[in-house]
Every structure is written in structure tokens, then in C-alpha cells.
Design goal:
There is one protein chain. By secondary structure, the chain is an all-alpha fold. It contains ten helices and no strands. Helix 3 runs parallel beside helix 6, helix 3 runs antiparallel to helix 7 and helix 5 packs antiparallel against helix 6. The two termini are 23 Å apart.
């Protein structure tokens, strides 16, 4: 992994190269999930959870299409593991009247399992306050010497640098991440 100065310099480089308009990406993703929740009559948290479950190794356009198809037809064109996660999350809607938002978040995060998908979910639901950083394959290549599978400790270390820089720039963590990513 790069040393701390190299990582912080790369964050500065990509932040300065990014466009301010892209900082709203997670709010726009939240709007996508909210609209689908209205169309299908299910909680936004369920839609965001399904969206997160469908996200690994997919472009955003593919991800959106897969979520729409899943909600319309209950078909999933992803791996069996991701399909099972989406089905499990979809099934949580029957408990929406007895679960608090915090309990629903916890259960969805348990079903998602991976750091990236859990962070993605939380950033969609809480784009202005999420303390999580979504480190997808592109981000990991840029900040982890091309390694795509950091250890849990390395993932947390990279996340901490992003949190530090977001605080320095006085913007939400999700806004920093999306500005660099977009």
C-alpha cells in the first residue's frame, strides 16, 4: 500500500481534478431509489439495499437496470450470491411495520456483508452524513497500488484518509468519494 503522504497527495490530486457537480452523485442515487420505492410501494431502504447488492462489478447504468428488472419481474441477472442477497433484502419489507429504520439498516448491512456494498448502501441512504467510504475497484487501483483486495485493516486505513480529507475540505465523505470517482 502507498504511504500516508502518497495517499493524501493522490486524494488531493483527484479532488482537484474532479468536478464539483459530481459531488451530488449519491443524492441522485438516493432519488433513483426513492422513485422506485414510490413506484413499487416498498421502503427506500429496501430499494437501496437491493441496489447495493446488485452493484459489485457493474457500471451504474447496469446496476439501475438490474434493480428495475428485479423489482418488476423478481429476476436477477447477477451472480447467485448477489441474487440471494437481493431476495433476502426484498423479503425484509414484510417487517417494515415492526422494525425501526436503525434495525432495518442493521439487517440490510448484515445481508450485504462486504465493506464496499455496505458502504454503498449507507452512502445512498445518508449521502450527507455517511461516515463510510465506498472503495470500489477503480478507487482501490488508484489508492492501493493496483491491489483490488485490500485486507480489512487496509480498507479501513484508506477510508480513514478519505474521512480526514473530507473533513479538511468541509464536505460530506460521500461527496468527496463521488467527486474523485466520477
Amino acid at each position: 500500500m502507498l504511504n500516508s503522504n502518497q495517499i493524501l497527495e493522490r486524494i488531493d490530486y483527484w479532488y482537484n481534478k474532479g468536478e464539483r457537480a459530481s459531488e451530488n452523485w449519491y443524492s441522485e442515487a438516493q432519488t433513483f431509489c426513492f422513485n422506485l420505492s414510490l413506484i413499487h410501494g416498498i421502503p427506500i431502504r429496501i430499494v437501496a439495499g437491493i441496489t447495493s447488492a446488485m452493484s459489485p462489478l457493474k457500471r451504474w447504468s447496469q446496476n439501475m437496470e438490474m434493480v428495475e428488472t428485479f423489482l418488476e419481474c423478481r429476476e436477477c441477472k447477477h451472480t447467485t450470491i448477489q441474487a440471494k442477497k437481493a431476495e433476502s433484502i426484498y423479503g425484509l419489507q414484510r417487517y417494515e411495520d415492526v422494525l425501526s429504520d436503525v434495525e432495518l439498516d442493521r439487517l440490510i448491512m448484515e445481508f450485504l456483508g462486504g465493506e464496499k456494498t455496505k458502504s454503498f448502501y449507507y452512502s445512498i441512504i445518508y449521502p450527507q452524513t455517511s461516515p463510510y467510504v465506498v472503495l470500489d475497484s477503480w478507487m482501490l487501483k488508484a489508492f492501493n497500488n493496483g491491489k483490488l483486495k485490500p485486507s480489512k485493516n487496509q480498507y479501513q486505513t484508506l477510508s480513514n484518509y478519505f474521512i480526514q480529507k473530507a473533513f479538511e475540505y468541509q464536505i460530506p465523505v460521500a461527496s468527496l468519494q463521488s467527486r474523485i470517482w466520477c
